[in-house]
Amino acid sequence: MSVIEIKVPDIGDFAEVTVIELMVKPGDTVRAEQSLITVESDKASMEIPCSHSGVVKQLKVGLGDKVKQGSLLLILEVADRTDSGSGPVAKPAADPMVVPAPAPSSPPPANLPPAEPRLSSHVPQAALGGLPHASPSVRKFARELGVPLTEMKGSGPKGRITEADVQGFTRSVMAGAVQTAAIAAQVKPGAAGASDGAGLGLIPWPRVDFAKFGPVERKEMSRIKKISGANLLRNAVMIPAVTNHDDADITDLEAFRVSTNLESEKSAKSGQSAGPVKVTMLAFLIKACVAALKKFPEFNSSLDAESDNSALVYKQYYHIGFAADTPSGLMVPVIKDADKKGIFQISQEMSELAKKARDGKLSPAEMSGASFTISSLGGIGGRYFTPIINAPEVAILGVCKSTMAPVWDGKAFQPRLMLPLSLTWDHRVIDGATAARFNVYLGQILGDFRRVLL
Ligand code: CAO
User: Fold this and answer.
1) pTM for the predicted model, two decimal places
2) pLDDT beyond 70 at 322
3) Is 331 in the pocket of ligand 1 (CB under 6 A)?
């Protein structure tokens, strides 16, 4: 073992800087390149890395100390290295930052490697470019929240960033009013970092050379998939979403739907009506949801981004989006004013909008303004799923394929047609108990639409 002195390396144009954070203490084991202290000038702050691995014996600086290039930071105990048996060799004089500590009892340091990269290679350019002032505790607070100080403006003296600034910035990001560079990279289709999780502080996305394992073909994703993917990612990451699953007994409703469709077919054949409009279960679901949204208005609200999510905007309209599967990807056309329309009109509009979606002819107006969304996989299959909320809406209803199931009526099992419901809701706005009540009420209406009149 030898002891060496670790000194402040070349810090560019700064003559003297202040120590604002100590990141190690005596006894700590550090590895080469690990940050030791943070220093701050009037223009920037930067972390000073360690050039060697070892154990910190003594810290030679304290908070508030002024240091400059060559100032002694700490004494580090490092493992000796031998040079293929040729005995200890003095550290190269060319490295001014690492010199043997003046400890006569210690053997001379053995063949120390040249100092690891200088400060300039460790300091992000943004930091050198003018990071505002912030106290160590504020820096620590920002680090814990993952807030990039480089992207903030401080409200304190000389632009110093305060804890309140960090809190305000975090609220704005959560409200979607401000985007950090990392989030922007995540949501921008095709942007660097959009798929590697770098902005979230996650380990990098695995990059695999699939061709090593077998033949592969690369196909560009559709524009719609790229755009909806970026939106889905933001919504999945930013909304604390919970999903409640339930079943609704739609035995009588389905019988009514089938008989209604038979009636309209007959009347179209006899020339009494223009043409049969096929009534779908989804149309009934839209009407049932409108009734539930009226009873539980939070589900028809949005967080008010203008006031940093400190208020809810309750919508007085009922525009219901429905997810449509198209060859180019997922689209969400919107039935406007669903509360003012009947089942036939909703079915008719839905079929037109779904066709337009599949033909790629939906206008932006036909896809905007939804206050609640339904995603139905009922025509395909499955039992339950967890749909992702379509921000800034606060809830979405997922519906799967109805199946006959034995239901206990208190005396015997009865065969009933059961519809699986999956309600995902934003926990910032809605509580679990309200969500359960919403599902129960929705189930009651689907079981007997006369309840809407009560
Ligand atoms: N249970 C049982 N059968 C159902 C059902 C349900 N919940 N919902 C629909 N069906 C039946 C219909 O009655 C119809 O049967 P018939 O042809 O015998 O009458 C058949 O399934 C096909 O219905 P459909 O899916 O064409 O019509 P729809 O009104 O139910 O849905 C639309 C329209 C546009 C929502 C649908 O075509 C679609 O695109 N669904 C996919 C949505 C999606 O991708 N969601 C996932 C989003 S997350 O990635």
Assistant:
1) 0.63
2) yes
3) no
